[in-house]
Amino acid sequence: MGRVFFIGAGPGAADLITLRGANRLAEAEVVLFDALTDPALRAFAPRANWIDVGKRGFADSTGQATIDAMLVRLAQTHAVVVRLKGGDPSIFGRLEEELQALARHGIECEVVPGVTAAIAAAAHTRRPLTRRGNGRSVSLSTAMTREGRLEAGRNADTEVFYMAGRQLARLGRRLTQAGWSADTPVSVVSRAGWPDALASDHLLADLATAALLHAGRPTVVVVGAGASPTPTKPVSKQAEAVQVAAA
Question: The pTM is what?
Fold first, then answer.
């Protein structure tokens, strides 16, 4: 009986994988990988058998039950199986279902965390998701439920919505209904973590205008405190001299 490693590949470019993730990936005999993982990651495990089990949204290319069964079967015939997931395995990665499938068959596993898209979006825009004084809480949500409902509220100082690219107009209306003001800052980032990442700034009232710019690209929407531009103040020559002396 083999062992399964769930590895977070990070949100985009291959070099955003963690060191532990890269080391575990190098041990793999077989890799089941998601749609948004960087093909360059194959260099970490060139002798492994790479199997595409990617899915986008709720339109599964590979059904979840099929993936669960594959993990069990492969772990029974290989020493090391890697389940390579985009971002972090624990954030909207259906990790629980796959862990349960392995547990039912007594298969050992390890979860290696990764960088999730919300963190990559914050890094790209240089806007911290938490802010001293007015950004003490962050909520991560998917824009759409499996049943096709758009659910958005006001549960934290900063709201981050995954997989929201096709629903920007509806999302803006729903957030307004939930109590966010029309002039709430919103940051939209598509393909966060990739070299071609694209960011745009909006007010909640005009969020719909971002739809064309980010069309067809995996999109993260940040609303509230974490979307505000980081304030900067010019430093006088006297203050700069004091800072240097203190250092």
Answer: 0.86
